[in-house]
Specification:
The protein is built from 16 helices and 2 strands. It is mainly alpha-helical and 302 residues long.
């Protein structure tokens, strides 16, 4: 793994990086038979249920974009997927969104029960930080590793993803204004996507200007991703999305189409993705894969 491949090879590159992330997850996750076996089985069931691995890919591609080996960002990539999967397990619980399907499979609590699902989510969150703090020798200096830990912790906590999730729950069935909607989306989904790109850059030793460019890119891609997700909840089929389509509408969730309409939501997503790509100009050809990934986010059908 060296320099990023041309943007035209994005699908093949994404497939290769996903394979590498899955191999790393296999190494770092507890094995299914380890005690307590049911919790570890539930953790692995949810992690290996499929998914785009978008957050790990963003970390690896950002690391490459600043001229470093993607393996330098692999612990962060693995930790991000564990944090993301924990959030999905808990998000699907009856007390939250009460969903039956995730990534095309029965949700964790439908297979293992609510108690085990909660514990599996808790275990994935804590295990993510064990991976990040692993003392195994690495080329990434300790100061940078601490930065990565701080970034992911803040993005996952009450000032990030948890805060956005809380706002999402409290806003159900209520009319909200655009600033509140923006806060909800930039925290519930955007915070972890922003952290994914930033920790890739940090692990790769990005200077101030490239890290600022990556941050601007990530903030816009993160919001666009959630807007597209909102649109797909209305237009996508359950089989394509891997979860129950229309669930946001039924629960009267605060979404961009609900507040701004479908057409304006599409315009907003397209505008954000243009801004995301503009932000990468400072990286030149090294930003080609991230540019292509922005187009991938905009063209999602599931």
């Amino acid at each position: 793994m060296g320099e990023p491949e041309p943007a035209g090879n994005l699908a093949a590159l994404m497939a290769e990086r996903r394979r590498q992330v899955d191999e790393a997850l296999e190494r770092w996750l507890p094995q299914q038979g380890d005690h307590p076996p049911k919790v570890h089985e539930a953790m692995r069931y949810s992690v290996f249920a499929g998914g785009k691995r978008l957050r790990p890919l963003l970390a690896l591609f950002a690391c490459e974009a600043v001229g470093s080996h993607p393996e330098d960002a692999m612990p962060a990539a693995v930790a991000l997927e564990m944090v993301h999967t924990y959030s999905l397990i808990h998000d699907d619980l009856p007390a939250m969104d009460d969903d039956d399907y995730r990534r095309g499979r029965r949700t964790c609590h439908r297979v293992y029960g609510e108690a085990v699902a909660i514990l599996a989510g808790d275990a994935l969150l804590t295990h993510a930080f064990q991976v990040l703090a692993d003392p195994v020798p690495t080329r990434v200096p300790a100061a940078r590793r601490l930065q990565v830990i701080a970034e992911i912790a803040e993005a996952a906590g009450s000032r990030g993803m948890v805060g956005g999730q809380a706002m999402d729950i409290l806003a159900e069935g209520r009319e909200i204004d655009r600033p509140t909607l923006l806060y909800l989306h930039t925290h519930k989904t955007g915070a972890l996507i922003r952290a994914s790109v930033r920790v890739g850059g940090i692990a790769g030793g990005a200077g101030e200007e490239p890290l600022q460019a990556l941050t601007r890119y990530a903030e816009r891609v993160g919001l666009a991703f959630q807007i597209v997700d909102d649109i797909l909840d209305i237009e996508g089929a359950s089989a394509e999305m891997g979860k129950t389509a229309g669930s946001d509408l039924r629960r009267k969730k605060a979404t961009y189409p609900a507040v701004m309409g479908l057409e304006e939501s599409r315009r907003q997503a397209a505008h954000l993705l243009r801004e995301a790509k503009d932000a990468l100009r400072v990286l030149g050809e090294k930003g080609a894969t991230l540019l292509a990934l922005a187009d991938f986010v905009g063209s999602r059908r599931h």
